[in-house]
Amino acid sequence: MRLRGGKRRKADDRPEVPAGTPGPAVELRGVRRQYGRGAGTVHALAGIDLALPRATFTAVMGPSGSGKSTFLQCAAGLDRPSAGSVRLGGTEITGMSENELTELRRSRLGFVFQAFNLLPSLTVEQNVLLPLRLAGHRPDRRRAAAVLAQVGLADKARRRPGELSGGQQQRVVTTPDVVFADEPTGALDTGTATEVLGLLRHAVDALGATVVMVTHDPAAAAWADRVLFLADGGFAGSLERGSAERIAARMAALTARTDVMAGVAA
Ligand code: ADP
Ligand code: MG
Hints:
Elements: E1 26-35, E2 42-52, E3 57-61, H1 68-75, E4 83-88, E5 91-92, H2 98-109, H3 124-134, H4 141-150, H5 166-172, E6 178-182, H6 190-207, E7 210-214, H7 218-221, E8 226-231, E9 234-240, H8 244-261
Bound molecules: adenosine-5'-diphosphate (ADP) and magnesium ion (MG).
Residues 68-69 line the site of magnesium ion.
């Protein structure tokens, strides 16, 4: 495990550490996730080991069914691995109760997009719901209303950011820890996709957020520092600072390989 700017600690006396302490933002050890039993068992994740340093932007790519969404859900505490452990900001989440997980998501993972500049074309409520939408969840308007009420902006849900004072805009803004996004640009036009990717990049470079983004788009992945390739529930290599062309070439090779292994090559 990499520790940044801190002393090495033995794993067995590692205390519960809050966000902002040294150590990877996201750490998975031996993570497996299987669906079903017996002959029909699907090994969606077949043993994932990974440590993502803070303030890095990682893209995850792989053929359909390779386990990308399962990986993201397990890493974000939205799904429970069948085996292995997940740490977020140094905190072991594997044994957490539903309530503890919900609180963790709320405080560290939820509403991370509010830390970026608000998107001017969306209402305040839509801005609050954006991170959930980008993480692949159904928008929860009651939750958005509760968040806005907490910061005294309940009556501003339908306004645009431009109609709020600077101070009011700041109140919609919280500090992100980790951003998980599953195909965040999949349904967006090119202009809006570029805007969202620029915000993600800015969150990493200027605000120290850690971004993990699943995408099938090499052009989107090229915004990341590193691309991790998944195949059949396991990691199948990575690419640092790759261009869209190089990323596309690696994806093509990976897809061809998994097709051959599945016996469906043309
Ligand atoms: P990806 O996002 O890369 O397309 P997923 O993580 O969605 O892949 O799925 C990985 C594998 O796990 C696939 O074989 C998929 O069919 C299977 N899978 C995913 N979710 C479930 C589920 N809820 N029940 C059964 N199988 C599932
Ligand atoms: Mg998926």
